[in-house]
Amino acid sequence: MNLLLATNNRGKLAEFRRLLAPIPLTIPEQLGLYLTVVEDGETFAANAALKAQAFAEASGLIALADDSGLEVDALDGAPGVHSARYGGEHLDDAGRCRLLLHALHPRPRRQERSARFRCCLTAVAVDGRSCTAQGCCEGFIADAAVGEGGFGYDPVFYLADYGCTIAELKPADKDAVSHRAQALKALLPALRKTFPELGE
């Protein structure tokens, strides 16, 4: 059986395909499945569960969903679960990055700009089986957007160990440190145990 990736976000799909290479995958587009799930949960875990359940019920497949976002300490954890809608639906990724940089403009010192990407993954089957895991990636908000890779807030998320933003990393390097990679690493043993039909 294939694992359905419960997202139509092309950036996330590309990451999942790299990180889950041994597992046979299906993407919603292959099924003509274009669901819009209302993400009204108060936590990443709640929203991931909502998406996984909806895609599993619509397809009959085991569905893997993530909910993830950026938490900035100086903004009391915002944008958090509202990361994809920060500033309103009219903004694109670049607009959200500009808004974030503007919000942190009064805080120029790096230690005042600590942040993390957080990811919660949930896999659900229509028979009720499920498993979940979380991962995070610590860093800082840069002074300006730099880099052409990745998506979302990657151009403004600075990794001190690499001396660059996530958007400047090669895909293989991003996969070694990203919040989604950490969550998948934690999830895989439970995924194989809970859903043996996915194979090794």
What does this protein look like?
The chain has a 7-stranded mixed beta sheet. Helix 4 crosses helix 5. The chain is an alpha/beta fold and 200 residues long. It contains 5 helices and 7 strands, in the order E-H-E-H-E-H-E-E-E-E-H-H. Strand 6 and strand 7 form a beta hairpin.
Chart the SSEs and their pairings.
Blueprint lengths: L2 E3 L4 H10 L5 E2 L17 H16 L2 E11 L20 H11 L10 E11 L5 E12 L15 E3 L4 E2 L5 H7 L1 H16 L6
Helix pairs in contact: 4-5
Provide a brief overview of the structure:
With 200 residues, this protein is of the alpha/beta class.
Question: In terms of structural class, how would the helical and strand content be classed?
Answer: alpha/beta
Helix content: 25-40%
* Biggest sheet character: 7 strands, mixed
Main-sheet strand order equals: 2-1-3-4-5-6-7
Q: Mean of residue pLDDT?
A: 93
- The strand count comes to 7
Radius of gyration: 17 Å
CATH architecture identity: Alpha-Beta Complex
The CATH class assignment is Alpha Beta
CATH topology: Maf protein
User: How many helix segments?
Assistant: 5
Unreliable runs: none
The global form is globular
First and last CA, distance = 11 Å
Instruction: Quote the beta fraction.
Output: 15-25%
Number of domains: 1
Question: What order do the helices and strands follow?
Answer: EHEHEHEEEEHH
